[in-house]
Amino acid sequence: MGKLLHISASPRGEASESLRIARVFTETFQEAHPDDEVEHWDLWDGSLPDFAVGARAKMTVFGGDEPQGAEAEAWEAARRTFERFDSADRLLFSVPMWNASVPYVLKQFIDVVSQPGWIFTVDPATGYGPQLSGRGKRVAVVYTSAVWGPPLGPEFGSDFQSTFFGDWLRWTGLTDIQDIRFHPTLTGDRDEARREADARARDIAKVF
User: Fold this and answer.
1) What does the DSSP assignment read for 67-109?
2) Binding annotation
3) What is the pLDDT of residue 63?
4) Domain of 141: which CATH number?
5) Which residues are documented as binding site for FMN?
6) If pLDDT is split at 50, 70 and 90, which confidence band does 154 have?
7) Domain that holds residue 23
8) In degrees rounded to 5, what are phi and psi of residue 46?
9) How many domains does the chain have?
């Protein structure tokens, strides 16, 4: 039995387009894969640990030592977060655009789980080594925005949302990635954009 983990970066509930599209995806996935588990992880639910002490623990690990005391507790909390993320062989992210990039809670998630030996190794001669590659994990990402859209000029903003997040996924070794996009812009046909996004979500989910 496989597992789909939906990781949500939107706090807007029923008003969220990224969550609505993700719901279309997960419902279709469950219909097509009735024996697989589906888990939803709302990054705004308070489960992400603060990483101020964890950042010190990270550098302790980089130095070849074992975190102690408060650092050890912070490191263990980060490890539990990573293990929840790593428990699924199928990952769905719902990512709204905030100020041309991603919501800060998603960056917090990335900073917590991106640790040496878990997500990456680093070699002074060859650089970073991704740790999640070659494990058959697949990723789907729902990207949404209200103002920015691919056909528009820079006066309507820039896309550091998918460029940043896609780069992070590939850096970890997750390269089997499919995007589902909803960018109706301020003057576009929102209903048609929804239909197109929903259709793509269903098509991907059926064979995910």
Assistant:
1) --THHHHHHHHHHHHHHHHHT-SEEEEEEE-BTTB--HHHHHH
2) 10, 16-18
3) 84
4) 3.40.50.360
5) 10, 16-18
6) very high
7) 3-206
8) 90, 5
9) 1
